[in-house]
Amino acid sequence: MNADLDPRGPNPLRKGALRIAALVALIGSSLAYAGGPLYVFDPDNRVPFAYPNATTIPVYTDLGDLGPVANAAANAKVAFAFGQWTQVPTSDFTAEVAGDFASKGLPDITGANAGLVVDTDNGGGIHVLYDHDGSIIRDFFGAPDGVLGIASPEWADGATITESWAVINGAAIDPADVNGDDFVGVMTHEFGHSINLAHSQTNGAIAFFGDGSGPTDCALPYSGTLTYDHIETMYPYISPSQTGPAQSTVDHRDDLSSLSNLYPAAGWPQDAGTIKGRILLTDGVNQISGINVIARNIADPYGDAISALSGDYAAGESTMPDGSYTFNGLTPGAQYVVYVDGIVSGGFSTPPSPLPGGEEFWNTDESGQASLDPRCTVSPITAQAGAPHTADIAFNSSPMDRNFIAIPASGTQTSDVSGNGSYITGGFQGYQAPGWIWSEKSGLQVIPSAGPVKIDANARQMVADFLGDDGIARSGFWLGGENWRELTGGFELGEPCDSTLTSTYDISDSGNTVVGLAYADGCGGWDEKGTVFAYHWTPANGYVPLYGTGNWTRANAVNANGSVVVGWNDIDDAYPGRQGAYWKNGEFHRITPNPDSYFGEAMDVSADGSVIVGAYGLDMETFTNQAWRYTEAGGPQVLGTLEVPGLPDFMNSGIASVVSNDGKVVMGFSGFAFQREPFIWTEALGMRNLGEFLIEQGFSAVEQWNLNTPTAFSGNGKLIAGFGLGPLGLQGWAVKLNQVAVCHAPASTKPRTIEVGFPQGMDMHLGHGDQAGRCDLVLE
After folding, report:
1. CA atoms within 13 A on the CB side of 181
2. CATH number where 722 lies
3. Cis peptide leading into 759, omega within 30 of 0?
4. Cα end-to-end distance, the chain, whole Å
5. What pTM did the predictor assign?
6. Residue 777 lies inside a defined structural domain of this protein
7. Does residue 580 fall inside a structural domain?
8. CA–CA separation, 570 vs 549, rounded Å?
9. What is the per-residue pLDDT across 393-436, written as a single tens digit (0 to 9) for each?
């Protein structure tokens, strides 16, 4: 649980901050809150909050049962879990159960009276709440039922913590686990938070997410087999029935060191080895915080491994960027390798930063230039007691990385790009979430919309859904600040559907046409034609419905001058599902008139309206759903699908989501739901994985991403954009492609890398037999 300790004295924390980071169950595992402290008292001097060292901290337990676990058994597990933190030989931290809530004058705690403990000073100590029926998590905190626990220090006197609490969700315990044997790992983890320990990512991401055991695509100087026993207790995820027992014990180097740094015993840290350093930007001077750093013993890479987020003792709050890290407690005489590592998932008290370059090992030739400092070159460090070794890491950068843009906020989904690529727009994840606009000059600006923002070619008009005074979402132009101009006129709209009157999908490059979805009579009915329909809006004509042969239609995109609109036609007796459709000067057309040749919804259209792309085109030979491209002269053309690791072929569908203004480049993705692989297509290139294409161009920063969903081209085709899974989670991205590399291989000379225009120059060279990408990256 993440909250702020108030350094001014024994005052309660702000209640709003207390609600924001509960452990949330996620696909059978649960999210908890990198090595180091959870909260910092003085970031500039790296002073954390902590309980008094070498002083027994009293623990008080609730009076009722913990789900299927009887009170006495729950108390025994609490004693076991705190015993794990107490028995660490290199730490003087001590805590023990001193009594129950009755000894403090407190009743059995439920969702109705949890405020007697949370937000209330009860004289010190750690208070463990047994949420027997889940009502504390659900009713008091307002968190989902799947949350396993919440814990936080709450009261402090200066930098000294005086009181904490922890809530354990009994309703989340397997009814068969009557002794709490599987769930005790949740307790040990939460009690770590209660004494101000933060999350770490050392081995857990390998076990839970299949993350690499070292820098991406590097040969590793160690080997071994990872087991559940190697997962650190303070990793953000736990699966009680599988990893719970292993994560209940405090015996991994990572957890031992984190505790001992905060609560040191005599001889710590000088009796063991230390590696310390700074994480630097590619200039080798400026520091960057929030980068995960890992050290592994070559002889025992999983059992003797440790991690830290750079700047963890400043928690991202220092006046100047703090890129420092320190690994204490290393085995004297052992050889360690150190590398920077991308955070995979989870909440961290030190905000993770995107990796400016790819993951890389430390070596003695650190320079920040990939040509001089190959990222896979490694220099082992021999740990010596009392003799710290300094290992500064300067991120490598290829010249191409300056052309990769990461939208600097989590939850950002890119939706559009202005004509010259100077402005990128989008929306935040979530229903009716606000929009945003980004530029290199002004950075990220939040727009008070109720959905993603679309922008015209000249960046003069931005359109999106917004909430009116009646709380109903409708389409409008953003005028700046909180001001909107609603789209009006033309067809008289009816009642809203689910608090939405119209939904905005696109604006023409000219800025004078908006298209989307509208409602004539609430949510309508399956058998009522025209109640849910595509709309075409202009200042002159207002709303104009675009009907099809089915009962419902929707407009997804519009060409540059507003004359061609693309989308879908649905609930048509003669055709199954959503069929790809377009309206040319208002006249309805299907992508194919053959009901046995299915082509799903049209997603985008070229500037002149001649090329349309879309989703779920049925390949009659393979009976697979593929991305497609359509022209009136040539008809529909299936483009294929990409292999998606772990996804069965029968679930894999291709979706062409966006086409360049000239119709020559198509992007999209293959997959199911959010399990996706992005693609780029040209006639000469064919369908290629977009991430692999960019990495072979020299974009090392892309190694930290699943680009997932391409969504936009600039008008000149030189900037592509989308959203995917990046260092900050769901995150927008963009790439400048003024030129691309091809491996030019004339018959009589040695292959060499040359830079050519994109896409025409690239396609011309591919037609001559050259390969897309740098020769050193694409040739065996």
Report:
1. 6
2. 2.130.10
3. yes
4. 49
5. 0.69
6. no
7. yes
8. 8
9. 998 877 788 899 999 888 999 999 999 999 999 999 999 999 99
